[in-house]
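debug: dumping io for the single-chain case to check the tokenizer round-trip. Nothing else runs in this session.
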Amino acid sequence: MRPFANFPRGVRVAVFILPMAVGKSPAALAKHSRLVSAVILFFAFLILTGCGGTTSSGSFTASPAGGSTPPPPAGSTATAVSAVSAPSTTIASGSTSSASVTLNAAAPTGGAQVSLTSSNTAAASVPASVSVAAGQTVANFTVTTGTVSADTSVQITAAYNNTLAGFNVMVRAAAAPPPPPPAGSGVALTLSPTSVTLVAGAKQQFTATVSGSANTGVSWTVSGGAIAYTGFFTAPSVTSTTTMTVTATSQADPAVSKTAQVTVTPVPPPSGTGYSGTGPVASWKAYQYKDTDGLYHQAIKITGATTPYPVIGYSYSRADCTNLGDKFNDFWQPLGNGLWWFINRAELVYVKWVWYDNAQNKNILQQTPCIDYSSAPKYN
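debug: decoded output
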């Protein structure tokens, strides 16, 4: 039996030495006591410093889930990677996303080289390493995703000075394309009109007719301008003649579509100067016309018109034809040759006359400059 086997080593030595002091002189006893104390202190030091026992490996793991390495004292340089992260842990396949690595303190002189790895490089790849500039704690890098057939989880890991940090990213598979229609679906589509020329700002109704399917819906797309789900197109503003397309695609069979060509021209400049002019569709003269109320009203005399078109008079209170006050011919009636005038609000002396193709499309065919009727010639 070993009576002192369970005692720590330093204590066991002291226990064996103490009996040697029995019967000694005081001087010898004092010397013996000093020896015992020294032995105890020596072995206590060995125990506290771990000499002869199990030692730490000096490495650890830092991760968002496992916590991070305590920061070093102020003024120290980085000893560990404390985090690696991305703005989103979900990335679409076939795309890129930024990510960042963070140290627990500023990088030392010369910077810190942090190694990067991916658990599945086919699904999400990262550069082999990223450098944190001296004095900085963060560096950015790019995660590039590949094509995956199903959502795939990938672990991105950063390593520095025997420390690790990481995060998981989910690479989302692209949505499966809609199945192709059955062969020989028999769906057909016609589009009208197939070509048209419009002035900027004008409108045009397109009509798509689908046959061979109970689903007669179409989707509209344009290369310029805007179009409603009904096929009602609005031409954009242009500074020169521009060609664009309108396409109708069958919802029953997306492989079936038709395209129309649209030519958009700039709004024609005003025709004429002062109180007369000639445009593409008619000639005109501006007059003050005295009506039965005894007041002079803004009038226009149209000549040389081969086709009647809706002519709208816009009257304003400002000389640059802004601040609209009234309109002539609110009903958009086609007007041919003759004299036409406002019947109210004679004080709105600034007028612009505009010829349109029709009330639906509002395609501008011709317009006058802003006319100051205060000094226009009198008709009667």
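debug: round-trip ok. The longest helix spans residues 26-49.
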